Amino acid sequence: xxxxxxxxxxxxxxxxYLLIVAALILAWLIGKYREMPLLFWxxxxxxxxxxxxxxxxxxxxxxxxxxVRLINFAHGDVFMVGAYTAYYATTRYGWGFLxxxxxxxxVCTFLAVVIERMAYKPLRDAPRIAALIxxxxxxxxxxxxxALDFVFTPNFxxxxxxxxxxxxxxxxxxxxxxxxxxxxxxxxxxxLALWYVVYRTKLGKAMRAxxxxxxxxxxxxxxxxxxxxxxxxxxxxLAAIGGVLYVxxxxxxxxxxxxxxxxxxxxAAVFGGIGSIPGAFIGSLVIGMVEILAQGYISSxxxxxxxxxxxxxxxxxRPTGLFGEAAKEKA
Amino acid sequence: MSQATEQRPMVLDIQGLSKxxxxxxxxxxxxxxxxxxxxxxxxxxxxxxxxxIGPNGAGKTTVFNMISGLISVTGGDVxxxxxxxxxxxxxxxxxxxxxxxxxxxxxxxxxxVLDNVRIALHPHAGYGVLHSVWQGSRxxxxxxxxxxxxxxxxxxxxLEDRQDEIGSSLPYGEQRRLEIARALAGEPDLLLLDEPAxxxxxxxxxxxxxxxxxxxxxxxxxxxxxxxxxxVVMGICEWITVMDFGQVIARGTADDVSSNxxxxxxxxxxxxxxx
Amino acid sequence: xxxxxLRFLGQSWLxxxxxxxxxxxxxxxxxxxxxxxxxxxxVMFPSIMAIICLGLNLIYGFNGQFSLGQWxxxxxxxxxxxxxxxxxxxxxxYPIQGITIDVPTVxxxxxxxxxxxxxxxxxxxxxxxxxxxxxxxxLAAAISAVFGYxxxxxxxxDYFGIATLGFTIIVQVLxxxxxxxxxxxxxxxxxxxxxxxxxxFWAFFFLVLTIVxxxxxxxxxxxxxxxxxxxxxxxxxxxxxxTIRYKTTAFVIxxxxxxxxxxxxxHLYAFLSPIYFGFVKSFDPMIIIVFGGLGNMTGTxxxxxxxxxxxxxxxxWLPQGFEAWRFVVYPIVLLLVMLLRPQGLLGKLELGFLRPxxxxxxxxxxxxxxxxxxxxxxxxxxxxxx
Lengths: 331, 275, 386
Description:
The complex is a heterotrimer of chains A (331), B (275) and C (386). Chain B is of the alpha/beta class and 275 residues long. Chain B has helices at 60-67, 90-95, 113-120, 129-134, 137-156, 172-185, 202-219, 230-236, 254-258, 261-269, and strands at 10-21, 24-26, 29-31, 34-45, 49-53, 75-80, 83-84, 98-100, 190-194, 222-226, 239-244, 247-252.
């Protein structure tokens, strides 16, 4: 207890001006709450919902970065493909909701494995920028190829009829829908499953080993290629789930659907400390919250600017994100 | 053990230098973590050639890194020519007169030999961005002077033939020489050499020893040397500081130190190298 | 004055004569043969892109700082100069008649014009454009100095890149909402009515200026300091280089040129939309410089023109109805290049006057004689060193 106390004192001495800013923001938020408490809770609820969806995407980013130090820009587009798959499965072929989600998972996993094997694997030892540009290239390809007429068409599609019947309840004046509960439930299950895989299975141990030191892991007999592919697969499966849940919540689909959520999820992963799984989750919740609050209380167009400003400011004070590890250089 | 006198003033005065990694800062000081260096003292007089030795991991390079400002200082003070270096940024420390080489050679890998040295001459270049763009007579003059200075330096180290070759393509021994040449380009008063003889065969080591003595005289340097090869240390150092586990365990001349039981234990106990 | 030594901006008089000749040839021989569309898409636009790409190459290829922020400065330069010209340009006209020369029929196979104009332009408008471009670029540079310094102080490479990405997006969002502050910009609908003042002369002029300035900076002591940060930042610090200062210097210079490019862009198409300045397009310069070779100026120039001409050319070459495939073929080509030649088209090879200047080695005898006495080195030592 005394240790915690002294740490707080030291932190206070260093960052007193930040604490003043934080106090001001808190005061403003409390003011808004007092004004219209219901709206505030509604925003909070919506923010959590968005944050959970972002978390599913952010986990993929953070896992891939942790293991191969690559920012997989195509991840947002895999998310998009998952959404489209579920859409076509339910509307054109009359599949149920869960089977459609299952199909989306299969398709996205397959897609991610193909991308990894063909585009990323050959560049594993090349300069990192080459892999990054390749990821951008894959992203562009997915966005424009699916926009061709014989694929997904470049049009905006409205997701009707929704594969789930939406029921909403008013709990103490705040609107909650079954979709939101579904999102929370599914995400929590995924997080638990992921935690189990990463910390309780051999594959997870191998993943952590490869993330730490790829070459040594190889020397220890770990099939590094398989582990890396598995990581991509798991990340994309999560993205697929996220995609389906996202379009059920915001039923507007187009091939550039994945760009902004992908970017926000990436930001969330960085914010929480890229490479850290709990960081991705917490970061996503915060970013989702900030986005909804900014959109609601300040203005919708300025929303993104505020989110990114928050990111930059946090990075300035905690350069590796909330839970990130600082890289040390030996002279 | 420094022989500081009025004719030979104190150049480097380190008192109580400490470095803690990973500990938490509390109001009572640091808790936990690893003390890589603890209460390290050393004074060096002008013109001396002194050694800093100890088993691997003793903290010697960490001391160097703290002197040159590449690592923050947890406690204590480093005083150079009357001024404290603690908290100063590395480039400012270098410009105030300290040059160094690195344990693992850190040349600029894709640049030529000549450019490696010219970069270190940049603080004395004599012009800034404006003249870089304009490239008039002042630029031409300064570039010529700078390049000639670099070429003079390379000539002393017998590297002038190599001036257009890529630094990292040189044989190992020449890379080490280039690193020393580069460190001297900044016209330092104090030179920190971190294991300059690492990886050299006996012939090269002998040449290096002569080279170090030579540059000390020619450039009027004070030199602090980290080395594992005892032949070098015993051969050229006027006096020696021995570290182990981050602390000073012995000090003295080569004879004092080599017969010091604590030193022997530190090396033998760790199965360390003997020159 | 010794004609051999007559230099301007570090380049010989011969160089400048060649530049003028190239301009005249392009202006009178090549460009009249191109349609308006091709002129814009194949000559003017790539020239402008090359300016911003050279700036980015300075920041990333030579200084090692990954930055996506140049697109934001491109936007700032565009809008700032556009607002100036939109509001004030009409007031500044000063036409100069110049000379009109009839092209003799003999030469008309080469120069497909009946007459060529020398020095026939509107001095007022030209000077105003020059000023507007400069002011737009200076604004970009000023903002980059503040942003760059504040952020560079604390963030390492990867995170700096992310912060610059955030900057570009913030700029875009601010531009989308700009009509509330500056009504002419019309926010998200896009700004129209910008005088179309970018001529081939200005594009060429600024491109040459950019190439020469960046080349000069790089082949100087400042340039070496900038490059040393990329090579080994720690060693650079230990050699007395203030790395933060030089990172900021490269960043500001690169952003200045991004601002110039933006200003020229605004007056080329006479229309600005904030959508164009978004996250997706911000990768274009990065893609181009990696494609051409990081840290390679010639590569950047080559890659910019190849990129622009191919992208636009595909509109023509692809069969009817397949134009949308342009953006499918483009990433595939990109992927192939990255897989087959990740170091870029030209790697580290520079051509022409962009090659690094060579300093002759001094004759050995000359170096030995005067200093031999001063050297205490004995012949045995020298031998031992061999």
